[in-house]
Amino acid sequence: MSKSEDRSDVDLVQLLTPTGERLDHPEYAPLVAHLDAAALRGLYRDMVLVRRFDSEATSLQRQGELGLWAQCLGQEAAQVGSGRALAPQDFAFPSYREHGVAHTRGVDLADVLLQFRGVDHGGWDPNAHNFQLYTLVIGSHTLHATGYAMALQRDGLVGTGDAARDAAVITYFGDGATSQGDVNEALVFAAVNNAPVVLFCQNNQWAISEPTTRQTRVPIAARGDGFGIPNVRVDGNDVLASHAVTLEALERARSGGGPTLIEAYTYRMGAHTTSDDPTRYRSAAEEEHWRRLDPIDRLRAHLVAESELPDDFQAELDAEAAALGARIRATVRALGKPPTSRMFEHVYATPHTIVEAERAFFERYEASFADSDPTTAAAGTHPHATHTPASQDPAMSHAPQSAAGRSL
User: Compositional bias of type Low complexity: which residue ranges (predicted)?
Assistant: First the structure.
């Protein structure tokens, strides 16, 4: 069975069809009935700007300006729709491709690139945006999010009835992360503690090259039943449906109703990261099928059909996107190269003798190149080529060694 054949989408919450027609839903349609044309254009603007940022970052990586990049191409509706459902006091825990959510939380998208440039371990102040730094360890942040939600309970910030005070947590992860122990442990803790957390799975159907069909025999949302957690599957390419189901789940969490597992059924239109080649494991026909379900095209079609996408708005948005792209390029290229000694910083919270010894050795090693005679260095003969190796350096004698005798 091909990946596109295993769609299993008959039970998805959908409020906007792929051709842009509004649908009714007894539970979720009323939650977005208040969104007027201006609000819909705002969601459309968010998705367009995030995609422009995403494409610029991909180009910068291809040009050697970024070490790596993880696209969110095709997942803008799930991210923007859910992100716009958050209250200011709510806290979000992302994985590493939630650029749309970062945008909705007021993070300067240029700051997202600092980590991928290698000049910062994060790029923004999490407490300034209630948006945690990206997590590259698959699934680990779901436990952090659940623990934070449990802390909100203990601080009396849940179920008070004060809309400006009650808070919730949302955490984002992919379908592949659901195969990790951390995510399942987070579901256990969230359930038994009735934690105010929304576990938002963006099922983009590929855990790098592994399809969802190799990870589960039931819809991911259905796993919530086994943990006693309410769950819902939503069309993740429908920004209105994504917004509605997240509004409902967050309100349940804030009021003391506990966790919700959301499965946003979407598609990763790009590569897993820029080091990946998706043509090796999925077909062009599958990719073309999902391009026809593009979340931005869907909302655009609705706005055009309602005569709510005037030419002047589109022109202003195009100019704004172009300006964003230019600013992203200029910002990244002005960052420079971080000193290699940065690798030794923030490894441990307190001084560590092994790390300090390795730092000292590395500084001597780099200094030996700076002291070289340029002509001999260019010829490939370094005057310090016989320097003491790490395995014999007295400062490194207490460091653990690999089988090859090098410090680990």
Answer: 373-390
In which region does residue 96 sit, left (phi positive, over 0), alpha (psi from -120 to 50) or beta (all else)? alpha
Query: Pairing mode, if any, of strands 210-211 and 206-207?
Result: antiparallel
State both tokens at 55.
């494409």
Q: Give 214's contacts (C-beta < 8 A, 6+ positions apart).
A: none
Per residue in 265-298, pLDDT (tens digit) is 999 999 999 999 999 999 999 999 999 999 999 9
Condensed to tens digits (0 to 9), the pLDDT of residues 35-54 reads 999 999 999 999 999 999 99
CB-based contacts of 241, cutoff 8 Å, min separation 6? 12, 13, 14, 15, 16, 25, 28, 81, 234, 235
From 274, 137, 46, 99, select the one nearest 111 (Cα to Cα). Answer: 99
- Report how far residue 196's alpha carbon sits from residue 151's, in angstroms, rounded to the nearest whole number: 10
263: β partners = 201, 233
Catalytic residues: 268, 272, 281
Token couple for 353: 């003798």
- The full DSSP string for 323-343 is HHHHHHHHHHHTS-PPPGGGG
Alpha-helix residue ranges (DSSP H) falling in 14-156: 37-62, 76-83, 99-104, 109-117, 126-129, 140-154
Which domains are delineated in the chain?
29-333 (3.40.50.970), 340-396 (no CATH)
Query: What confidence tens digit (pLDDT) does each residue in 161-192 have?
Result: 999 999 999 999 999 999 999 999 999 999 99
pLDDT over 70 percentage in the chain: 88
Alpha-carbon distance of 15 to 153, in angstroms, equals 33
b/e burial code for range 266-294 (CB count within 10 A of at least 16 → b): bbbbbbbbbebebeeebeeebbeebeebb
Q: Which residue type is seen at 335?
A: L
Distance between CA atoms of 153 and 343, rounded to whole angstroms? 37
Report if pTM > 0.85: yes
Q: Which residues contact residue 144 at a Cβ distance below 8 angstroms, ignoring those fewer than 6 apart?
A: 93, 132, 135, 171
